[in-house]
User: What shape does this take?
Amino acid sequence: MPPWSSFEPFLVSGLALGGVYALSGVGLVVLYRATGVLYLAFGAVGAMGAFLAYDVTPANTPVGWLGWVVCVAFCAVVTAGYGVIFGPPVAGRGTLVQAVSTLGLALVLFGVIDLVWSTSGGQSFTLTLPSDNYGFTAGGVQVNSTQITALVVGVLITAGTGAFLRYTRLGTAMRAMANDREITATLGVPVRRVEAAAWLGCGILAGVAGILLADMAALDDTTLTFTVVISSLAAALIGRLRSITVTFAAALVIGLIHDLITPITQISDYRDMTPFVLAAIALLVVSRGQVMTRSREEGS
Assistant: This one.
């Protein structure tokens, strides 16, 4: 077992990674509660946005405001456009149909990324942020501003989303739609407008997550497309696609465990299994709790 000093740098990077997973997972949960759609294209949209930010950024320079605007705007337009065009037709379909429809979008975007920004010739892409050059040292561990930003953004998005859903009219409408879409519509709530707002918000979060993860992990289509959606989806499933607080906590745990495994050479090659394992354990625990509750109710 490596000494604790070997784990300290990965404690910081794990929290930062968890922050990115948290804002991604919160976006998935809010969209699912408002529309019933599990947005599996989240990672692919963010990945393509990050590559577009790379294209508009001068070579060997950090991403500036133009890159952020291009990335977030692209993700917001694509996600909102998809929701407006394809959201209503699949709204009344089963969960499997809804998920597969967004998976189709993910595969299309993944193919476009692989075609336009191909790495087959040995070309590699690197995206950096100005905040990488600033930071501080804590206990001998170097912490850069990007890592702090990722964690803080995750916290703020989670807290802000919770307040938004609880205290605003639009948030109340989203919560009502999560409980019963048809009754909400009969009460005069503009369902299509509420859904469009949910899609737009999810797209904005995809853009933010795409740039942050491209800087912290790698500007790679496979990494950005699948790492984000798998880890954030695992966190959302642990939160049972309802609780953004549990989703946030689960995302931090996933990020931490994923990076803390790195120094342990015997199992470091299996660290990408972290979201699957934690989600499976959580679902088994939840299922066991439900079975025991039903057994008590039947026995009484």
Notes: The first strand starts at residue 135 and ends at 138. DSSP finds eleven helices and two strands in the chain.
